[in-house]
Structures are given as C-alpha cells and as structure tokens.
Design brief:
By secondary structure, the chain is α/β, with parallel strands linked by helices. It is built from eleven helices and 13 strands. The strands form four sheets. Strands 4-3-5-13-6 form a five-stranded mixed beta sheet. Strands 8-12-7-11 form a four-stranded mixed beta sheet. A two-stranded antiparallel sheet has the order 1-2. Helix 2 packs across helix 3. It is rod-shaped, with a radius of gyration of 34 Å. One of its GO terms (cellular component) is protein-DNA complex.
Length: about 325
C-alpha cells in the first residue's frame, strides 16, 4: 500500500522551481555586467535602482552564487559572475529570437482565400508557382480553388464568390490583372474541316467559319477578342450555337457546328476526338493573368496573392532575359 508520504515524493512539481532564474533577471544581469553601475543600468532598463538591486539579489539567491562585488565606489563582476555571463547572454539572445519569431507568427496572415480558375488555368505552371509562393510566405492561409465556366467567371468576381481568378484577358472595367504569361492562339476546328491538313493558315481563310458563341452574360469585350471580332479586313464574324463551358465548346466544334480560338496550351491539355488545332499566322497572341476587383486590392489576402503573382511574373521576365542573352551569345 502506498503511503501518503511516498505518493507526495513521487508527485510531479506543481509550480516553477524557485531556484530557476527568470529570463527577465538574466537580462538585468547582462545589462548590469555591461554598465557596472547600478544607476546607469537602471536608466537603460527603465526601472528604478532599488528594483534592479532587489532583482539581482534574488537572482544571486536562486543561482546560489554571488555575481557582483559591490562597494561605495565600484561594482565589479565576481569570478563566478564572469563565468556565467556568457551563458546568460546566450539565454537572453535565444529569448529575443523567440520573441521575434512569435511576433512574426502573430503577424502572419490567416484565413480563407477563394481562387477561381477558368479552362486549364489550374494546371498551368504559373498558377502552381503563385500558389506555392503564397503558401511559403503565408502558410496559415487556406486556399480554396474553384473551377469557373465561361458564363460566370467574371460574375464570380463581382459577386465576391471568389477573391481572385486565374483567367485570360481582356477584362471588363473594375477588374485589374497581373500579367503572368503570353502564348499564341490556335484555331480549333472540326477534324473533318479541310484546313486541318495544313500546318498553318491565315485568319482570312476562316472568314466563312461560324464561331461558337457564349451566353449573353459574358462580357462582349472578352468574347470579341477570343472570336477575333472584328477581323482585320472588316469581315463580320458569323456566330454559331452557344456554349457555356469549355467541354461544351469542344463538343460543338467536334460536331462541326462551328470553330473557336484557344490558347496554344489547349493542344496538349484538351485533345479530343473529332477536333484539330491549327496555327494561325496573323492572330495576335493571348495573355494569362491573375485578376481581382479593383475595390478589393487592399484586402490583406488579395494583397498577399497579388504580391506573389508579381514576384512570379518578375522572375519569369528575368529568366526570359537571361535566356535571350544566352541565345545571342
């Protein structure tokens, strides 16, 4: 049977060890060791001289050694004090690092960022790079990625369903964009179209081809660009049936109901039976970017992801310049 005395001896400590000095006391010790003058040390520490003297006495009691020799004329370190000073400085420096780290953690962003993507933007290298950098900088931010359709990707921003979106400009008024990449646009044609046997075609050769249209809620500014409307020679664009998402668009093209223009990445990302991709020699390229509402630009989570996108874009530009210089060499 365990007696009360034995149980008490085996019990875990319920409070701090009275022999353990506090970090605050060690800081006072270090400052006094540097000043060797109670009045100057107290002024530097913003405490009274009597409070400093009391804390040093308590520290000596806890450590069981005398740290300073005091006289009416001078304060000097004892041999024990000199031996312990380096360790005390190490503890104070470690506590300072801990405090700075805790402060940094407290300032780190947290919360939920909703990111929209259209088409294959979620799979693009620049999208991965931006979100990876955002996580490295702000690991407490939870990112929710949502796939958006043609018909609602701008509405999702204006309704605040998403905070930012990886998409393809142009964008309507009120939306800002950080450019991330540029690539050619290709003609997406039915596999039965005679033009698919050509390596390259001119835009004028597509004048009689109807273009798949989009729902009326899609900003016309955006689809006019993607339909190449108007054509450079003034030829009006004929529109075919409506598609509200990429798969619907590709299905209509495969059925021969019309054609469309897509980024060059679509050739690798969206190969489908019944369709072919053909280069167009005189079609301006497309751009990709991160978009957000101008009114939300100063929101902390939006600022964070925009900053990450800007960093990724700058790094890509620098790499392109270095690549160009190597080519010239």
């Amino acid at each position: 049977m365990v007696t009360g005395e034995t149980a008490a001896e085996g019990a875990a400590p319920t409070g701090p060890d009275p022999r353990t000095p506090s970090a605050h006391q060690l800081r006072l010790f270090v400052v006094l060791a540097e000043e060797l003058h109670f009045s100057r040390a107290a002024a530097r520490l913003f405490i009274t001289q009597s409070a400093l003297s009391q804390q040093i006495r308590d520290l000596e009691r806890r450590l069981g050694v005398r740290l300073f020799d005091r006289s009416s004329r001078a304060v000097t370190l004892t041999p024990q004090g000199r031996m312990l000073l380096a360790d005390a400085r190490g503890v104070v420096a470690a506590m300072d690092r801990l405090s700075r780290s805790a402060s940094t953690q407290a300032r780190r962003l947290s919360g939920r960022l909703v990111v929209g993507t259209i088409g294959a933007e979620a799979a693009m290298p620049y999208t991965h790079a931006v979100l990876r950098l955002l996580h490295e900088r702000h690991p407490l931010v939870q990112v929710d990625v949502r796939s958006l359709h043609f018909a609602d990707h701008f509405d999702a921003l204006f309704r605040h369903d998403v905070d930012v979106a990886f998409l393809r400009p142009p964008v309507p008024p009120g939306v800002e964009v950080q450019h991330l990449a540029t690539e050619p646009r290709l003609a997406c044609l039915s596999a039965s179209d005679p033009l698919v046997d050509r390596d390259r075609i001119a835009l004028a050769e597509l004048a009689r081809h109807p273009v798949i249209d989009v729902p009326p809620q899609v900003p016309r500014l955006w689809w006019d660009f993607w339909a190449a409307d108007p054509r450079p020679d003034g030829t009006p664009v004929r529109y075919g049936p409506v598609a509200s998402d990429l798969e619907g668009l590709l299905h209509l093209v495969a059925q021969g109901k019309g054609m469309c223009f897509l980024p060059a990445a679509a050739r690798a990302l969206f190969p489908r039976p019944g369709i072919r991709y053909v280069e167009v020699t005189d079609l301006p390229p497309s751009t990709a970017g991160l978009a957000w509402l101008r009114e939300n630009r100063t929101e902390p989570l939006v600022e964070a992801v925009v900053a990450a996108a800007g960093h990724v874009a700058s790094a890509r530009d620098r790499e392109a310049v270095r690549g160009g210089n190597r080519t010239e060499d």
